[in-house]
Design goal:
The structure holds two protein chains of two kinds.
Chain A lengths: L1 H25 L4 H5 L2 H9 L17 E4 L5 H11 L38 H14 L6 E6 L6 H12 L5 E7 L8 H4 L5 H7 L3 E6 L3 H8 L11 E6 L22 H11 L1
Parallel strand pairs in A: 1-2, 2-3, 3-5, 4-5
Chain B lengths: L5 H15 L3 E5 L5 H9 L4 E3 L4 H13 L3 E7 H7 L1 H9 L6 E5 L17 H5 L6 E4 L3 H11 L6 E5 L18 E5 L4 E5 L3 H14 L5 E5 L1 E2 L3 H7 L5 E9 L4 H11 L5 E7 L12 H7 L4 H12 L3
The chains are: A alpha/beta, B alpha/beta.
């Protein structure tokens, strides 16, 4: 495990730098919401969890990653470029007139499965894909990333009920539990806790982990294709919004903001 | 073919097609129909109930369609059109995913149920979505035909079904791919109608015919309107009367005026539909009663159309 973790940590640092550069160049993008889920996505794409083929984005046997938390797409783009779905130069055109993508996810970007940005929608789509795989007796897995704030949307719970009732155990949801929304901490705004109990009462198999620890993330994904439990799995990943940049952490003001020149220099120093 | 409800005509045909095509799936939000009872027993694995959860019906259908399935998401018309509108906008229209939404209860066909169950503004909001087509069904022959068409589409569509049994006006070999049909040869005055109001237009034209007045009738059953065909069809028409059991802003009348404006055609237009400027319809006493309150009854329409020929 330890041999596996070092390169993933290195990759996380690299990806954070790419995200920061993209957002600073474009003067936009959700840096802090992306930094809370870097380790989860790096584990999925580089840790041997997700099955995909950048040379064949519509490969039938691929797993599907559904980015329900669309505001973190600025994190997905550099990963997709880095693993080979498209040229890295495209990242320099992020949110530019000649660019192919902006702040929220677009379905026509190679490697992206859906358009996402309106919260509470991707998760339901993920249940449809998981059901289709079950119907066709396919072994593909469906992974989806939710924001904790996204779980205020009623449609999340419509989909949650459906997935457990239909025993979609090929569906794995990760919640980026960074405790912050746009204006406030979740527990000050509208209590989400007891969060794990809510999911359990909706019929889901649950796991709570530290979302910045590769040891815990990889541990949660271990044996994911041969789970005996018939229920879908939710991994509640406890994270920090803005992880990696000290002045962004625990500060709702940074939601959806790209740092200006001075802050960008400080941020980049912290990421070295 | 015997006239049956549009809902049963549509689902009966889907049932037949589903026996051959296992990718056809019914995604219902706790909605039934006699033909769906057959589905539930004979083709249970193709019948999915999401509960009273229209957002999930559309989101689930999106995922199924992205894997090559042919889902039909079904609920009462205002709910499948409006409750989950943003899912339709983002998941279906923006990604151009071929899902068929099926809504029953066009216009005020849930006449005993009040405005929550009236589909009187759904055309306005659905027709602005890119890629999506609305098929507002006129009779049970057309309902069957659009069941076939919906299994072959590469775009999202919305099948809008009246709750009542409507008379059959089309023969079984009719071609509905054009999106509109000229029912009465077009004359100086032409009624352009949609859905159940096509039948009202026929009644009105027959009364006027007995009075020596000929009016044309065009049935528009697909939105966006087939502009080329429509412009061709109304050549020589001086006055167009649009007729819909639907709100005026954004409805059929608006759509017709948009085509006329875009093609720089100067015609007199009288839009007849439902006026909700003072609030939604909390009236009961049957559909006929509601129609007469909103000026959609035969008598009012005969008077209105004939006044075009003999203005005061």
């Amino acid at each position: 495990m330890k041999n596996k973790i070092k390169p993933l940590e290195k990759k996380s640092k690299e990806i954070r730098q790419l995200v920061l550069n993209m957002c600073c160049n474009a003067c936009t993008g959700h840096v802090s919401s992306s930094f809370s889920c870097v380790e989860v996505l790096v584990a999925l794409y580089y840790g041997g969890i997700l099955r995909y083929d950048p040379k064949n984005p519509s490969w039938d046997d691929r797993d599907r990653f559904i980015m329900s938390k669309g505001q973190s797409s600025v994190l997905l783009y550099p990963i997709l470029a880095d693993v080979g779905y498209f040229h890295k130069q495209e990242l320099d055109r992020f949110a530019q007139a000649d660019g192919k993508f902006g702040v929220h996810l677009q379905h026509d970007v190679p490697g992206a499965e859906i358009t996402s940005g309106s919260l509470g929608q991707g998760f339901g789509i993920a249940t449809g894909i998981a059901l289709a795989y079950k119907m066709d007796r396919k072994l593909n897995m469906v992974f989806t990333l939710l924001g904790d704030g996204e779980c205020y949307e009623g449609s999340i719970w419509e989909a949650a009920m459906f997935a457990s009732h239909n025993r979609l155990n090929n569906l794995v949801a990760v919640v980026d539990r960074n405790h912050l929304c746009v204006t406030n901490f979740t527990e000050n705004m509208l209590e989400l806790e007891p969060f794990e109990e809510k999911w359990r009462s909706f019929g889901w198999n649950t796991l709570c982990i530290n979302g910045h620890s590769f040891e815990e993330i990889l541990g949660a994904f271990e044996g994911i294709r041969s789970r005996k439990n018939a229920r879908p799995l939710i991994i509640i990943a406890d994270t920090v919004k803005g992880q990696g940049i000290s002045f962004m952490c625990y500060n709702p003001l940074w939601h959806g903001l790209a740092p200006g020149e001075d802050d960008a220099i400080c941020a980049m120093k912290e990421l070295q | 073919m015997k006239a049956i409800s549009l809902r049963d005509a549509f689902w009966d045909r889907i049932y037949e097609l589903s026996k051959e095509n296992k990718d056809i799936l019914i995604v219902t939000a706790d909605m039934g129909a006699p033909s769906l009872d057959k589905f539930r027993t004979d083709l249970a694995s193709q019948y999915i109930d999401v509960g009273i959860a229209e957002q999930q019906a559309v989101a689930l259908s999106t995922g199924l369609a992205l894997c090559g399935k042919k889902p039909f998401a079904y609920a009462i018309a205002p709910f499948i059109a409006l409750r989950c509108y943003e899912h339709t906008r983002v998941n279906l229209a923006s990604m151009n995913v071929p899902v068929t939404l099926v809504g029953v209860g066009a216009g005020v066909s849930y006449d005993d149920s009040g405005p929550t169950h009236h589909a009187v503004d759904d055309i306005s909001v659905m027709r602005i979505l890119p890629n999506l087509k609305i098929h507002n069904i006129t009779d049970s022959v057309m309902a069957r035909a659009f069941a076939d068409i919906s299994c072959k589409i590469s775009y999202p569509n919305y099948i809008r079904l009246d709750r009542k049994v409507l008379p059959i006006i089309y023969d079984e070999n009719s071609d509905f791919s054009t999106g509109l049909t000229v029912l009465n040869a077009v004359t100086e005055v032409c009624i352009v109608a949609t859905g159940n109001m096509v039948h009202r237009a026929i009644e009105v034209s027959e009364i006027l015919k007995n009075q020596g007045i000929d009016v044309g009738i065009i049935d528009i059953y697909t939105f966006p309107i087939n502009e080329e065909l429509f412009v061709e069809a109304i050549k020589g028409v001086q006055t167009i009367v649009t007729l819909e059991e639907h709100t005026l802003p954004g409805g059929l009348g608006s759509a017709v005026c948009e085509v006329l404006a875009d093609h720089q055609l100067m015609k007199q237009v009288k839009r007849i539909g439902m006026d909700f400027s003072k609030g939604y319809c909390y009236k009961y006493g049957g559909r006929k009663n509601i129609q007469s309150i909103y000026g959609l009854d035969k008598e009012y329409l005969v008077k209105t159309v004939s006044s075009i020929f003999s203005p005061k």
